[in-house]
Amino acid sequence: MCLSCVVVGERKLSKKIVFGIVFTLTLIIVLTLRAPHMQVKAAEPSLESILDSLGFTNRQEITDETFPAGTYKVTLFAEYAGYRDQNTLSWYVSTDEGEPSFNQIFSGPEGVPPDHDMGMVSPPLTKSFTATEQFGLSLDVPPEERTWFTEKSRNTDNAKHAEVYKDLNDPEILFIGFENGEADGGDFDYNDMVIALSAGGVPTPIGTDVTVFPAPGICFIFEDVTTAGSTTATASTPPAPPTRLKLIGSYYEIGVTAEYTDKVTIMMSYDDTGMTPCEESSLVLLRYDALATDVNKDSKVNLIDVCKVLMALGSSPGNRRWNPACDVNHDGVINCKDLCAVLKDLGESAWTNITTSLDTVNNLIYAETSQFSGIGIHR
After folding, report:
1. Considering Cα of 125, then 126, then 130, then 131, what sign does the dihedral take?
2. Residue 202 CA: distances (Å) to CA of 75, 127, 198, 216, 366
3. What is the C-alpha to C-alpha distance for residues 320 and 336, in angstroms, rounded to an integer?
4. How many helices, marked H, and strands, marked E, lie in the chain?
5. What does residue 102 show for φ and ψ, rounded to 5 degrees?
6. Beta-sheet strand order (sheet of 119-131)
């Protein structure tokens, strides 16, 4: 074999080797670059997995596609969608022509920020709306100009793009997962947008530093929620305020069905209109705990309560002097046991100052508590 043939052959062989090496490296680079995306896609949790992770395990799938008129809280928990920064959630009612009339709840940029990976919304976002008639929910996917409805019959592909679950621990709470689905090359795992729809309290999931907004201007941060439930803050008629203080804004009855340990941080906003700087600096957030020994319900135990018990002493139901408020231990007779209980609490107040700090620049007051009943801002 001539030398020139050997050289040519070696050159051809070298080119094949180089080509093979380049091809292999290119393939490795492409796969490496694609790997994170592929892994995220594979790791996307289903709606059921998301609800499990939040602690809402006692649930049942239901077939409801529309919901009764009323005032609702909507909590956004998760967004596992490629277009999460553009998708919008709305509630809608049917017009006389049968077409939907939309009312936006969450816009695209809300929830998981555009520069973050898709996933859980932390803390969850809660908004409220009032529908005066039967309504449905919809997910709008602008890049593809598609809108998916909780009503299957309204979907252009006649497929189910929303899954609805009822919380069996609190039937007023529904969990809804939307899915763009196979139209986007994905599967129906109903995690594009995961929300809770509640006519009552705000869903409170398990976890640490759980933040909920049960009413406008009120935020609770639970250090550790061990069992998922709900939280409510209902404005109601206030009890008598402490001596020389007056209520600022509304008094709220607080209800928490979630089980929690450790402290809860409260943040409330207030209106400082008409307040002097001195008055504003004196604001305190007080917790109200009703006292059985507060016979006349003036939020304090004093000699007036003692006198009322003395006047009813020895009476029982049917007696002219019977006063059920004086039967402190509820044993059906007013005796020395009731009197001793009132004397023991003499000087006690039903109000407890739980304030930790005051932000007069942003009109916010902070407090900590390990229990709930009623709360209100006073000065």
Report:
1. positive
2. 7, 10, 7, 12, 20
3. 19
4. 5, 21
5. -95, 145
6. 59-62, 162-167, 173-178, 193-198, 70-79, 119-131
Q: What is the DSSP letter of 154?
A: G
Interatomic CA distance for residues 229 and 232, integer angstroms: 10
pLDDT of residue 20: 55
Residue 115 · residue 141 · CB < 8 Å: no
**∠ at Cα 74 (64, 256), nearest 5°?**
105
Tell me, what DSSP letter sits at residue 349?
B
Q: How far is CA 164 from CA 6, 71, 121, 196, in A?
A: 73, 19, 19, 10
- Over residues 58-74, the pLDDT tens digits come to 999 999 999 999 999 99
Q: If the chain, 379 residues long, is cut into consecutive pieces of 10 residues, what is the mean pLDDT of each piece?
A: 44 52 48 42 82 97 96 95 88 91 93 77 93 96 89 93 96 95 69 94 96 95 96 95 94 96 97 96 96 91 92 93 94 94 92 97 97 95
Strand partners, 210: 222
**Which residues is 300 bridged to in the sheet?**
349
Pairing label, strands 207-215, 218-227? antiparallel
C-alpha dist (Å) from residue 45 to 53, 203, 210, 358:
10, 20, 20, 41
What the block records as the tokens of 324 is 């059920």
The CATH class of the 51-200 domain is: mainly beta
- Strand residues in 142-272 grouped as ranges (E): 146-149, 162-167, 173-178, 193-198, 202-204, 207-215, 218-227, 229-236, 247-256, 259-269
Query: What residues does 357 pair with on adjacent strands?
Result: 366
Q: What's the CA gap between 122 and 207, in Å, rounded?
A: 11
Which part of the chain has CATH 2.60.120? 51-200
Are 180 and 217 contacting, i.e. CB atoms less than 8 angstroms apart? no
Angstrom distances, CA of residue 187 to CA of 45, 121, 275: 12, 21, 57
